[in-house]
Design a protein that fits this description.
With about 220 residues, this protein is α+β, with helices and mostly antiparallel strands. The protein contains five helices and 13 strands. The radius of gyration is 33 Å and the shape is elongated.
Length: about 220
């Protein structure tokens, strides 16, 4: 994926504010040499950030007529407006070892025995994984095949097939759960007990005497 960046000469809060007013986004590129101050077109960047691949793949940045390979490192959004405030990139090459989060894509869920036969609810416990690899081996996403998922089963990190050279960082958690199949909740039908009408009460002695007196 390619994008165009422009050299930024002015720095500081005032300069960044003027850039944003001109529909530009201030940014920085670091790694493998001197940091470069850059600016990007806001609208083009805003829509690029909506694409999954922009976050989890090696990008080609055109700066001053030269193409450099970079990865997205960080970006800041306005607190309540759809405005990108700042963005950071890191230069990489084929030998750069990187640590990055990549999304999970779940395949064949609807055809698994858990869903197709047992009508289970599939819980996506994790939707991304933190990985380490060389920049040249960075996958845009990792696929989790659910074709054999059965009722009550859980799939863990160790159960997925990783591309060559890719290692998952679990931050001390041993083999975390990625997805689980929960049986559907069956609501028990409550049968109401038949209502038996009470027999009319027998007239008391006092009521009998009252009737006789009326006669």
């Amino acid at each position: 994926m390619k994008f165009v960046a422009y050299e930024r000469t002015l720095q500081g809060t005032g300069a960044s504010r003027r850039l944003r007013n001109a529909q530009k986004v201030p940014g920085i590129v670091y790694g493998a040499g001197e940091p470069a101050m850059i600016e990007l077109d806001h609208n083009a960047l805003f829509f690029a950030l909506k694409k999954e691949g922009f976050h989890s793949s090696v990008l080609e940045m055109d700066l001053k007529g030269k193409t450099e390979q970079v990865i997205l490192r960080d970006y800041q959004m306005h607190a309540f407006k759809p405005i990108v405030m700042h963005i950071d990139f890191q230069r990489v090459d084929s030998t750069t070892k990187i640590s990055k989060k990549v999304p999970l894509h779940f395949a064949n869920e609807e055809n698994s025995p858990a869903v197709k036969t047992d009508k289970c609810l599939v819980n996506h416990v994790l939707t991304e994984l933190h990985i380490q690899c060389l920049a040249s081996q960075l996958p845009e996403f990792l696929t989790v095949d659910l074709a054999d998922l059965v009722k009550g089963q859980s799939l863990h990190v160790d159960d997925i097939k990783l591309p060559e050279g890719v290692k998952v960082v679990t931050h001390g958690k041993k083999n975390p759960v990625i997805v689980s199949a929960t049986p559907p909740i069956v609501e028990e039908e409550v049968v109401a007990a038949p209502v038996v009408a009470a027999a009319p009460a027998a007239p008391t002695k006092a009521k009998k005497d009252e009737k006789q007196n009326r006669k």
